[in-house]
Amino acid sequence: MTDKFPELEDEQSPERRMEGLKALRMFLWLAVVLIGALALFAIFGGERHSAPQQRTTFADTVGGPFTLTAPDGSAVSDQTLAGKPFAIFFGFTRCPDVCPTTLSRLAQLRQRMGTDGSKFAIVFVSLDPEHDSPEDIGRYVALFDTPIIGLTGTDTQLAQIVKAYHVYYEKVPVEGGGYTIDHTAAVYLMGADGKLQSIIDHHEGADASLAKLRRLVK
Amino acid sequence: MTIRPFLSAAVLSGTLLLGACNSAQETESPVGAEATGSQIAITGAWSRETAEGQDTGGAFMTIANAGTASDRLTGGASPVADAVQIHTVDMAGGVMRMRQLGDPLDIPAGSSVKLKPGGLHIMLMGLKQPLKRDETFPLTLTFEKAGAVEAEVKVEPITSEGPMGEMAGGHHD
Question: What is the pTM of this model?
Answer without folding.
Answer: 0.75
